[in-house]
Amino acid sequence: MPGPRRAAAGRPLPPLRLTRRGRAVVVVVVALAIAAAMVLVLPRASMAWSGEPPRGHLVLAGETLWEIAVAFDPDVDTRTVVDRLRRINHLASVELTPGQFLLLG
């Protein structure tokens, strides 16, 4: 186990003490770390809830995910829309059940 810290002349150094400026620096660094964490977390939270209810679709008998994707976003490549719908609805496949509710985005 190492002994106490020693100065160049062999005398023990006094315990480390923070000055008023040092304490202020520590407070500022901690505040910046908290602010940075909030900047990273809050945008995601605001994206999760935009203030309006999520759009959805109740699956009818015989409907396919492809048809729903075309109707929902006809200007975007349908494969991309199908992939997005599968991801946001946690679908393992494109199989749908009549009465199933799909979030559309």
TrEMBL record:
Arranged from A to Z, the UniProt key words for this protein are: Membrane, Transmembrane, Transmembrane helix
This protein's source sits in the domain of life called: Bacteria
Tell me the InterPro entries matching this sequence: LysM, LysM_dom_sf
Q: Which residues form the LysM domain?
A: 58-103
| CDD domains per UniProt | LysM (cd00118)
Pfam families given for it? LysM
Q: Which residues cross the membrane?
A: 24-42
Q: What is this protein called?
A: LysM peptidoglycan-binding domain-containing protein
